[in-house]
Structures are given as C-alpha cells and as structure tokens.
C-alpha cells in the first residue's frame, strides 16, 4: 500500500505527552491515513477520504466511466476495480487547521513546541506534497467478502419529510456556496471542455460549481469586473428559474452551457473573436430556456396562452426566456453586467436576444441557409458573419445531445419524449391540434430520432464542421453513429410489426388482407 512509506513511527517520547494530547496526535495521524481509505456508501467514502461535507467525490470504473456511489454498487474484484477521486476539495486547509490547533494546545500545556510536533509538522508537509502529486485516490482492496460485510452494516436512510421547492432551492444554495471555494481538479476541468462529459453523475449544487468554473476559466470575472458573489447569486437565480419538468430543466441548461463551453475551447474561438462575444454565447446558452413550461410554441399559440398573447405569437417562449434572463439581472445583487459601460451592456443585451431567439426551431432553416451562404467566404472580422456564427453555435449546443456518448444521450431522448407525450395528451384533452411528432400513439423512440438526425442535426453539424474541421471527430461522427444506431432499431421494429401482422392475418379471407394492406399503404403515404 502507498501509505506504508508515508510516515515514520511515533517517536519514543510520544508517551511523555498527556493523554488528551496523545489522543489528538493519534487523531491527526488517523486523519492523514484515513484520507486513503474507501468504503461502500457515499457517507463512508466521504469519511474515509476525510473529505469535508461539501467536497465533491466521484467514483470511476475500469473503463473510466463515472459510477454512482451507493450501497447497491457491485462488488469489485482484482480484474474489476473502482477508482475514487476527490474532484474538488480543500484538503490542505483542513490539515493546516489541525496542525495549528494541535500546536496551540501543546503550547498552552508545555509553553513550547516539543520535538514530536515539529516532526509531525514536517511529515504532514511531506504528506501534503504527496497529495498534490497524486491524481486520484485508489480503490483499496475491498473484495466481495469485505464488501458484503460492509453492506450488511449499512442501515437504510431514514425517510425525510418532503421539502418545498423553496426549501430545496435554499438547500442547493447552501451546498453551492459551501462548495464554491473548492479547487476542481485539472482532470475534471479538461473533461469539462469535451462533448463526452457525463452530466448525469453531477448534482445540482455541483453543476453550479462547474458553471462558476466555466465563467472563471474564460476570465470573464476579471475582464468584465464581475464580483464572485454576484456571479454566484446570478447562477443560483438562473437555477431557480428552471422548472422541474422532464426535459427543459436546469440539467438541460447545464448541458447546453457545457457544450457551448467545450466548443469555445475545441475551436479556439478565444483567438478568433472578442471575449465579450464569448460572454454573450455562454450566458445565452445558460439562459436560453429559462422558465420553460414544458409546452412548445405551437401549443402556446394554439392554446392562446398569456405568453402567446404577450408576444403576438412570435417566438413566445424564446422572448420569455430573454425577458426572464434580464429580469434576473435587473437585481443589483445578480447583475453580472453592472460594472460595464452603457455601450457594452447594450451590445451584450442585443447579442443575447439574437442568440436566444435563434433557438426557435421555426427559424432553423432561415438561420442555417444564411450561414451556408456566407460560410465559403466567412470572415471573423465581419460583424454579420460573426453574429450568424454565434447563433449557429448556440443552436448546435442546444440540440447537441446526440453528439454525446450513447449512455449520456439516450436518457435525454427518454426525457424529451416524456415531455412531448405530456403535451400531446394535453392537446387531446383540450381539443387542440395534436402535434404529430409528439403523439404517443404514432411516435416510437427510433422513429423520433432518425428523421431529426437526418434532416436537422446532420445538415447543421456538417455546415459548422466545414468551418471548423476539428469538430468532425467531436460532434459529427458521433451524430452519424447515432443515426446508424436508431436506423437499425427502426428497421428491427418495423420487421417485428410486419411479422406480428402476418400472424394476425393467417386464416383470414384474402379480400380482408388486401383491404388491410391498402389501408396501411394509404396511412404510410399520408
């Protein structure tokens, strides 16, 4: 084990200390050692790693994928092991505090610092340097027998009373602020810049921390004089204004922002356009679906909702998202733009409105065709070219799930279909026109994706890749694989349907079979 060579034995004069000080020394020693021990529930992991209650722990399997830490975790083996990592921590400050406290107590008792404390300080400093040089905490040999034994000791969590939405939000706020000073590892920071980032393994407060990292790493705070507490207030209010609905929720907001952040780094946009334009794109991605009700523009217009009436049936949702975003920033404590000049504010506001309104899919072909026209002669210094590119990149980020690994993308499709079906069910109940691609009686999982990928995603992603060839492996190839995957599923589904129909028809009069086939052909053409 790594720890064997980390510390020397206790010196012989250790016994000359008073019992309370001996216990405290042992406690400090245990603190250092137990930082490397791993158990089988999140609370035990946290205690074993000596991670504070607000540190962020993640566990990885042999494939490098993040797995959920829970009592249901499969037992590891010599060939199948786990890697535990403190991805955001403040461990050094806790070591310093313990040492300082121990030294002050010893000085109170003895009037001077004994040799043992000096020795311990030296060794703990060495341990801190080792911590800084080690990239992750390793799984320490808990095989099946030990794992089962540990699991048997775990008692079920007591049921907590249902929190109100406000109470849940305040709990997330406390967790976020407690975590906000943590140092996120370089490995996570680099992973955050890629489309393969797995959002499902991060909780709300942790995602807020990562959003703070994005704004910080792009140097927005220094460039635009954004105070950290104002950014945190802004991010939290944005979180609060995303509704708890299946798809257009805060997690979707995080995914779109994270993809936008990744595209900025992958295309090296920082060297091509001004930082103020990067701020527009990232903040637009963050705010692009604020207060989404889970029912699209077609529903808003057909149902003559307040939003449709307020915005005269013109992109009612997107106009609402913009209004909510600037409503949040109208409060001084949340206004990340308050230290800018009037000209800068007007520029950012205008840019954000254009980017967010561009996410209305009713304008998809208009914006894509405009980009196609200018792409062969694209010029980053041309104001119109740059604005269209910014719109395109926010659009790509908004509908980029299929560019992610299938294990990340497919659950999002389930969420989207759930939201679609909710809308079509409501449309049927209210006697409104039923949106065809949302009708649970007509839409299947593979059929919903094949046409969307073929006629929406591939043309859009291909055009952006022509401007940035480096994106082909990151977003275009995964989308092509997704189309192949869902096309195979669709073919298999149709074959199953044909087989089932043949079975039903067996033994029936020939004219009935012919009539049924004709009806199917008419339906398919329609």
From TrEMBL:
Bias kind Acidic residues: ranges: 513-526
Principal EC category: hydrolase
Cofactor binding, per record: Binds 2 divalent metal cations per subunit. Site 1 may preferentially bind zinc ions, while site 2 has a preference for magnesium and/or manganese ions.
Keywords: cGMP, Hydrolase, Metal-binding
Enzyme Commission code(s) on record: 3.1.4.-
GO biological process: signal transduction
Signal sequence range: none
UniProt: Zn(2+) 2 binding residues: 289
Gene3D superfamilies tied to this protein: 3'5'-cyclic nucleotide phosphodiesterase, catalytic domain
Gene Ontology terms for molecular function: 3',5'-cyclic-GMP phosphodiesterase activity; metal ion binding
Span list, region Disordered: 492-526
Pfam family, one: PDEase_I
Keyword Hydrolase listed: yes
Cofactors, names only: a divalent metal cation
Similarity annotation: Belongs to the cyclic nucleotide phosphodiesterase family. PDE9 subfamily.
Protein name from the UniProt record: Phosphodiesterase
Taxonomic source organism: Sander lucioperca (Pike-perch)
Lineage: Eukaryota, Metazoa, Chordata, Craniata, Vertebrata
Gene: LOC116044850
């Amino acid at each position: 084990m790594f720890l064997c060579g980390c510390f020397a034995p206790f010196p012989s004069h250790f016994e000359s200390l008073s019992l309370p000080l001996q216990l405290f020394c042992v406690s400090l020693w245990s603190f250092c050692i137990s930082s490397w021990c791993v158990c089988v529930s999140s609370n035990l992991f946290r205690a074993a790693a000596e991670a504070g209650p607000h540190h962020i722990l993640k566990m990885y399997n042999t494939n490098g994928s993040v797995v959920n830490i829970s009592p249901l975790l499969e037992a590891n083996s010599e060939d199948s092991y786990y890697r535990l990592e403190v991805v955001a921590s403040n461990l050094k400050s806790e070591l310093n505090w313990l040492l300082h406290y121990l030294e002050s107590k010893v000085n109170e008792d003895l009037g001077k610092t004994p040799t043992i404390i000096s020795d311990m300080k030296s060794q703990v400093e060495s341990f801190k340097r080792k911590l800084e040089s080690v990239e992750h905490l390793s799984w320490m040999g808990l095989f099946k027998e030990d794992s089962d034994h540990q699991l048997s000791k775990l008692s079920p969590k007591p049921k907590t009373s249902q929190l109100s939405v406000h109470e849940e939000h305040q709990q997330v706020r406390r967790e976020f602020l407690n975590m906000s000073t943590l140092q996120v590892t370089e490995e996570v920071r680099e992973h955050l810049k890629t489309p393969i980032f797995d959002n499902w393994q991060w909780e709300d407060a942790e995602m807020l921390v990562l959003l703070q990292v994005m704004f910080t790493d792009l140097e927005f705070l220094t460039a635009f004089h954004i105070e950290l507490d104002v950014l945190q207030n802004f991010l939290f209010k944005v979180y609060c204004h995303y509704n708890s609905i299946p798809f257009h929720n805060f997690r979707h907001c995080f995914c779109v922002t994270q993809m936008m952040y990744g595209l900025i780094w992958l295309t090296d946009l920082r060297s091509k356009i001004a930082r103020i334009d990067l701020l527009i794109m990232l903040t637009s991605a963050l705010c692009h679906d604020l207060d989404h009700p889970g029912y699209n523009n077609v529903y808003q217009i057909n149902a003559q909702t307040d939003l449709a009436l307020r915005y005269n049936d013109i992109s009612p949702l997107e106009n609402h998202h913009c209004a909510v975003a600037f409503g949040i920033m109208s409060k001084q404590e949340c206004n990340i733009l308050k230290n800018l000049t009037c000209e800068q504010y007007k520029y950012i506001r205008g840019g954000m409105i254009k980017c967010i309104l561009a996410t209305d899919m009713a304008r998809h072909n208009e914006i894509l065709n405009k980009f196609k026209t200018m792409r062969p002669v694209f010029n980053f210094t041309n104001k119109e070219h740059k604005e269209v590119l910014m719109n395109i990149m926010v659009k790509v980020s908004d509908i980029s799930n299929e560019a992610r690994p299938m294990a990340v993308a497919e659950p999002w499709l389930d969420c989207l279909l759930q939201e679609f079906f909710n809308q079509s069910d409501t449309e049927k109940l209210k006697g409104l026109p039923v949106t065809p691609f949302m009708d649970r009686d007509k839409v299947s999982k593979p059929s919903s994706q094949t046409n969307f990928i073929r006629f929406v995603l591939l043309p859009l992603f291909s055009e952006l890749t022509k401007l940035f060839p480096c994106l082909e492996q990151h977003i275009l190839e995964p989308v092509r694989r997704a189309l192949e995957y869902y096309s195979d599923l669709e073919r298999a589904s149709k074959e199953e349907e044909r087989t089932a129909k043949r079975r039903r028809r067996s033994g029936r009069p020939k004219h009935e079979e012919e009539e049924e086939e004709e009806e199917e052909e008419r339906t398919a053409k329609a």
